[in-house]
Amino acid sequence: MLTAQQQLLVQAIEELNLPQVQKLLADGLDPNFIDPEKGPPISVACDGLFQWWELVSEAYQAEPMTEQQKQEALQVHLEILDALIQAKANLHLWDAEELYGPLWDAASAACVPAVKRLLDEQVDPNSKDEDGLTILSSISDLFFDCEFDEIDWSEALPEEKETLQLLRSRGAKMSKELA
Questions:
Q1: How far is CA 146 from the centre of its chain?
Q2: How far apart are alpha carbons 48 and 109 in whole angstroms?
Q3: How far apart are the C-alpha atoms of 51 and 3, rounded to whole Å?
Q4: I need a surface site. Which of 40, 95, 136, 167 has the fewest CB within 10 A?
Q5: Cα(135)–Cα(173) distance, integer angstroms
Q6: 128 by DSSP, 3-state: which?
Q7: DSSP secondary structure, 15-81, as one string
Q8: In degrees, to the nearest 5, what angle opens at C-alpha 18 toward C-alphas 9 and 125?
Q9: C-alpha dist (Å) from residue 148 to 58, 99, 163, 166
Q10: Contacts of 44 (CB under 8 A, 6+ apart)
Q11: pLDDT digits (tens, 9 = 90+) for 123-154
């Protein structure tokens, strides 16, 4: 059972209420708890990146967003992520579904700044899921239905390509490379 403060933190993260997140953390709330349905707050925050990715990817089919518009829409997400990192959130906790946790969530939302921030914090890009897939293999399959080394980059959105190439440049391996 979560405390009232823990419930408020999860709610503030979901609502992108940065001042409330900052206040709760500044008041000493430990962000290392697990909501039984949503996982740890860091995963809730990284799950929230999908809101941004849906906005960006849908815009490619209508009127693409400028880089400034993308950054403005992403800013509150990154500030919440940073607040959690500064509060010593455990970035290695897996979410309630036991997938990959924050790095997988950020990568699957093609969010390069969040992926970079997590990698800078030494999150392992080569963790494997219950099916033995690494993040690089899993995200390649998610985006393109194939392995990283089989991707036709002409079909990739810029954020997808940059995310996968960032993972690769920072040591992420395909599952078959670690077999």
A1: 21
A2: 9
A3: 27
A4: 95
A5: 8
A6: strand
A7: TT-HHHHHHHHHTT------BTTTB-HHHHHHHTHHHHHHHHHHHHHSSPPPHHHHHHHHHHHHHHH
A8: 75
A9: 24, 19, 12, 12
A10: 10, 13, 14, 35, 38
A11: 999 988 778 889 999 999 999 999 999 999 99
